[in-house]
Amino acid sequence: MTHRQVHWGSTAPLADIAVMVAAHWLYHAGEINAILAIQRGEAWEYGEGVEENHIPTIGHGVRPDWMTDEEAALFESEHR
């Protein structure tokens, strides 16, 4: 199997490089999807968050059916 040089100075099989690049693109696609979901206000349940890019999700989430108004208020006050 032919190895190719990678940017960190090592070498890797071409198939592995293709998988690494595809995985990296998928990671960023997930980040974009998370940002769009927050903008639409439809994807994040309370307690979940976007760690990447330090995006606050409080106020953009979807409250679970089981959460009472009091629990939601407490959660929001603790996470603002």
Description:
The chain has one domain (3-78). The chain contains two helices and two strands; from the N terminus they run ββαα. It has helices spanning 14-40, 69-78, and strands at 3-5, 11-13. The chain has a two-stranded antiparallel sheet with strand order 1-2. The longest helix is centred in the middle third of the chain and has 27 residues, at 14-40. It is rod-shaped and about 60 Å long.
User: Biggest sheet: strands side by side, in what order?
Assistant: 1-2
Question: How many whole angstroms does the radius of gyration measure?
Answer: 19 Å
Strand content: 5-15%
How widely separated are the two ends?
53 Å
Query: What is the number of beta strands?
Result: 2
Largest sheet: 2 strands, antiparallel
> What percent of residues adopt helix (DSSP H or I)?
40-55%
Structural class: mainly alpha
Counted up, domains total 1
Shape: rod-shaped
Count of discrete alpha- or pi-helical segments spanning 4 or more residues: 2
Low-confidence stretches: none
Q: Please, what is the average pLDDT? A: 79
Run of helices and strands: EEHH
